Amino acid sequence: MSLITGYPAGAQVAQNDAAHMEHVTPRAGAPSSFADLTEQLQPAVVNIATKQRITVNNNPFAGTPFAEMFGNRGRPTTREAQSLGSGFIVSADGYVVTNNHVIAAEGGGEVEEITVSTTDGTEYPAELVGRDADSDLAVLKIKSDKPFKFVKFGDSAHARVGDWVIAIGNPFGLGGTVTAGIISAVYRNTGQLGAYDRYIQTDASINRGNSGGPLFDMEGNVIGINNAIYSPSGGSVGIGFAIPAEIASPIVDKLIAGEEIKRGYLGVLIGPVSEDMAEALGIPENHGEFVQSVTSDGPAEKAGLQPGDVVMKVDGKDVTPDQSLSYLVANIEPGKRVPVEINRNGKRQSITITVGERPSQEELAKQTFDPDSQNLDSQQGQSAGPGVIENALGLQAIPLNAQIARQLGASPDTKGVVVTAVDPSSDAAQKGLQRGDILLTANYQRIASVEDLEKVVKAAQAEGREAVLLRVQRRGQQAAFVPVRLNAPDKK
C-alpha cells in the first residue's frame, strides 16, 4: 500500500517486511510455535477506545400532543458510553486502520474522544481521517515524535482454505490477545447481499473487541481485518469473518488520501437463485441472481431490466455466490456502460446498462423487502373451498376487487388474488406468505382469478416442476417474487 508520510523514503521498514520475517516464518507444515511471529507483529496492533455522549429521551409521550404532560421530567438527558475495539498501524507516521463500527456512536450519539493504545501501554489521542460505512472501514491518525512500528497489507487473493492464520486484537477489553487457526473458507457470502458481503472465514478465535484487528498469514502479511462472528451464544464458536485485504487496501488508500469513494449501482432488489427458485424457473441452482424488483427511474429500469429477470453476467464476469451481483457492480465506475447477460423467461439475452452511483446504506435499506413483516391489515371474507390451490400451495384465496385493494393499500385497478389463509405447515408459510398478501403473477402469468392460479399450478405439476414462482404484493412494500414448493398432488 503506497502512503505519503512525513518520513524519508526508505527510512522505515514495516514490521512484516520480508527482511524482518526471513528467520521467524515457518515455511512448511504446522509451525512449532507462533511466538516469534507474534513478537514481531504485535507492536503494530493497537487497542481503540471511544467515549461517547448518548442522548436519552425520558418522555414516553415524545412526539405526541401529550409530551408536555411530563414537563421538565420528560426532557432528554445525556449519558456517557464507551466502546472498545482493535486496529493496526499501517505507516510509520501513525495511520491506523480499524472497523467503522468500532468508532461509530450508538444511535443518536456523538463520539467525543478516540484513544489508541499501543502494546507498551502508551495512549495517543486519535483523529478520525475517514470512514466508509459500506465496507465498515475507518482510518485514524495518531502522532508521536518517534516513528511507529507498522505492518503492511498482503495479497488475500492467494489465501487458501487450510492455510494457518493468527488473529491479534483486544477481545472483551482484556488487552492484546493472540489466537491461531486456519482459513475455513475464502470469499464467504453470508447472505446479506451487500456490496461487500465477501469475507475470509476462520476458526481462529475472534470475540467481541477483536473487530478492526488484523488477520495475519504465516509470512506476517495482513490478509484480513477481523470484522464479525457468527455466534448463537455471543462468544466464539469457531466461525469468524475478516474483510479481505484485496477489498480493504484500496479503500484505505482512498480514505487516507481524502478521496471520495464512489460505487456502481443498478437500482434492483435481488435474491439468490435457491433450489426452489431454480426448480420454479427450470434453470441451474446457484447461477446468477434473481431480480425481485426494479427501482423506478434507476439505471436498470432505464436499460430495460425487469422484475423476474435472472442476471447471469455483468461486464463479462459470472454472477455466483462467491462473486455476487452487488459486489461486481459496486466495483464498476459510475457512468460506465457495461453489458449485462440475463435469463428472461428461459431465454438468454444481453442488455447494456449505464451504471449509476450507489446511494447511502440508509437509502438502500428503504428498498428492502421483509417477508416476515406482520404489520398488515387483511380482509375478512370467504375463501375458495378446498381445491387445487389449498392442496398444492397450502393457501386459501379470494379474487381481488377495488374495495379490497384499497383496504390493502394497493391501487384500485390492481389485478390478482388475495391470500386469506395459510397452512402453517406449508412451504408458503415457511417463505413468509400471510393473509392479506396479493398474488399478482404465477410463473410470470398474470392472475385475475383463483382459477387463473389453479391453471398455472396444474401446468407446473404436469411439467414435473416442484415449485411455482409467485409475485407477491404487500402493503407498503415493493412487489417481490417468492418461490413456493408444491405439495404432492392427491392420488384418488
TrEMBL record:
This is Probable periplasmic serine endoprotease DegP-like. Transmembrane segments: none annotated. GO terms for biological process: proteolysis. InterPro entries: PDZ, PDZ_6, PDZ_sf, Pept_S1C_Do, Peptidase_S1_PA, Peptidase_S1C. It comes from Altericroceibacterium indicum. Coiled coil: none annotated. GO terms for cellular component: periplasmic space. SMART domains: PDZ (SM00228).
